[in-house]
Amino acid sequence: MSGIDLINHALDMVRPEKTKKMKITNKMNLPEALVKLVTIEKHNKENHLSATTLLNGVKQIILTERYWEQLEDDVSDRIWAIWGTAIHSLLEHEGEKEFTEETLKYEIDGITITGKIDNYNMEHGILTDYKTCSIWKIKFNNFDDWKMQGSVYSWLLHKNGFKINKCRFIALIKDHSKKDAKREFPYPESPVYIYEFNVTEKLLEETEIFIKEKIYSFIECIELEDDDIPPCTPEERWDKPTKYAVMKEGRKTAIRVFESFEEAEALLKVLDMKHFIETRKGESVRCQDYCLCNQYCDYYKEISKREEL
Asked: Do 295 and 260 fall within a single domain?
């Protein structure tokens, strides 16, 4: 059996049938119009991985595929995805030297990488993607996921023969406050925020390495039992490590925050009795709040057990 045949066989074993759909609930009894707007079909076709899927850990990718028809999400939890879709529909008009809402593809080892381009300016080689986000993404300068997604899109453009010089994300901030913009720094003055980066040959090379490594890991793990698939990396889980804050009675903020208990304890020894150590327990944010297949993941089950003790 050839390599591609092996991949196809393995994918047939784990991917749900095309007719199977994710369960969508409506716990808040929202209007049927909103329910109908929710996308419930699988994001990836057989033997395909999208640019956004590549940002997930291999374990999450495979478990999502295996249990797709058993996964459950509520309309209320997908409301911002609906809003994002509406924004895209308003911005789909293209200029004379642009194209919008085009899907690009490129195959590596039997797996087709896909990406839907919001807007591409052919004259200047500028890729534009539209987003909605929270103000906290801006305040924490948390753009690693956008950088990687934009890099994969740029790589797809390059592989399909298009020049690419710059990637821009135009974000509509959902919870922007004019009052906070006047009194906080740094804080964006406008509810529209632009994040952009130049696309270099080195970036394209690094992106291709990332894509190939993710594909190889996917192929290696696709026939493994659920619990035998390695857990997602700390970065993929959005891990926040446990920290130790030295506090003082009557004060709300910490004196200092340390990565280790020993460092916090050393400071505590030179302070008076009114000081104490507060443990700020770490968490895997994505596992707990943003992974629909976590109930089938042994890693999540284990950390949940530890939290209950």
From this structure: yes
Same domain, 141 and 199: yes
Neighbours of 63 (CB within 10 A): 25
Same domain, 218 and 276: no
- Residue 220 and residue 260 in one domain: no
How do the pLDDT tens digits run along the chain, 309 residues long?
444 454 454 445 444 444 467 888 899 999 888 887 776 666 678 889 999 999 999 999 999 999 998 998 898 888 777 777 777 676 666 677 788 889 999 999 999 999 999 999 999 999 999 999 999 999 989 999 999 999 999 999 999 999 999 999 999 999 999 999 888 888 899 999 999 999 999 999 999 999 999 999 999 999 999 999 999 999 999 999 999 999 999 999 999 999 999 999 999 999 988 999 999 988 999 999 999 999 999 999 998 887 765
Boundaries of domain holding 290: 239-308
| Structural domain includes residue 93 | yes
d(CA 131, CA 129): 7
Question: Do the beta carbons of residue 236 and residue 56 sit within 8 Å?
Answer: yes
Q: Which residue type occupies 125?
A: G
Same domain, 204 and 252: no
Provide the pairing of β-strand 166-173 with 126-133.
parallel
- 20: Cβ contacts below 8 Å, ≥ 6 apart: 68, 69
